[in-house]
Structure formats: structure tokens, C-alpha cells
Here is the input.
Amino acid sequence: MKIIADYHMHSKYSGDSKNEMEDIIKKAVAMGLKEIAITDHGPAHDGYGIKRSDYPKIKAEIDALKPKYPQINIRLGLEANILGTEGKIDVTEEMKSIIEWTNAGYHFGSDITHDIGIHFLNFMSKFSKNARRKAIKQNTKAMVNAMRNNDITMITHPGDKGPIDIEEVAMVAAETNTILEINQSHGHLSVAEIQVALKYDVKFAINSDAHTIENIGRVDKAVERAKIAGVPEDKIVNLGR
Ligand SMILES: [Zn+2]
Ligand SMILES: [Zn+2]
Here is the structure.
């Protein structure tokens, strides 16, 4: 399985990465990638989120680099935060008008003021079966509503940082034409989750979620999970053919 695109990576505009845009592109080209989406954390994350005011700056920076690297297609993306349980994500109308690839995922630390209860339940789900049951209900509802209410290209690391009912998530991903991610940097989707998702007409993407330059395009562990789970190659959107 040879990956020719990487649709999940972070730059210095995320609080948890120092990657310069041009270094990202150079590494992606060196890795033989034909397309990337640079997907910094949505602004509603108190620790890692981009500054809303930086967004036009990010676009200008990417636009200026595009002509220098015609061998690769560079998309300006975002890793939006799934907020609350009613299907909200932190993409403003202005951002929507310039985004070319919309990832969305659940993260601890997003919109602390409103979502502290959600984060607490997900934390407790590691220690209590009852909390886990409730957390699965809550996270699944949030993810399903987010897919139904927004034009999301891909759900990042489904089930990481908060447990989900993969059966329902995969069903709605198929219905809304949303890609599910097999993420190199996190253990989700896991082999077992991929196998459940395969019951539905879902597409997958295998991505690095790189926060450092050396990890751009690095997907060996995620590819291994896809192989073990037996994902047909035509269900993976970023494979070379
Ligand atoms: Zn993430
Ligand atoms: Zn990420």
C-alpha cells in the first residue's frame, strides 16, 4: 500500500507544532506525496487552536508557496473541533470560504467553558464502566450530529480521546459521505473498529497527523492496521494506484 496523499498534519499555527510551511512541503515532496492538506487545530481549542486572525495569513503563506512546488497539490485545511453534542464545529463562515479540506475531531481542551462536562466524562470513562457507557452515547451523538450538520470531509482519529459506537458512526459516515481516518499517531481507527466500519459503504484515509517534519507522510503503523483489518484498496482515498 503506497500512500500518495496526506490529509492530516499540523504547522506552527497550531499550538503543538513548530513546523514551518515550506519545510512541510519540502518533506512531503521528498516523501513522494502528490497532495497534502495542512490541517491546523480549530480556534476553539484553548491550548492548541489557531488564532482566528491568523487564518488569512496561513492562506497567504500557502498561496505564495504553491507556484514554487508545482509537483504537489497543497490544500489549506483545518482540523476543526467537535463541540458539544448537537453537531457544532469551530469553522466560521470566513474560514469556510477559504478552506479546501475540512477535518473534524474530538479533542480534550476544546471550548473548556461549555464542554468541561464532556471532557470530564471522557476522562472518567477510563476508570468506570458506567461513565464509559455514558461517554460512548455522548461522543457518538456529537460525532453523528457534526457529520449531519456540517460539510466535513473527514473525521480524524474516531474513538481516540473519547470512546464511540463505531457502528453508528460508520453508518452515518457512509450516509453523509464522510471519510473515516486511520491515524498513524493515534491508535484509532483500530483494527477491530475498521472491521466494523467495513460493514458500511465507508471510505478511509490513512494519514500521519504529523506534528513534526520527520513524521510528514509517515504512515507505516496505520497501513499495517488497514492491512490486518483487510480494507479493500479501493476504499482508501489516498492510495497510489
Ligand atoms: Zn486531532
Ligand atoms: Zn491532528
About this structure: The mean pLDDT is 96.
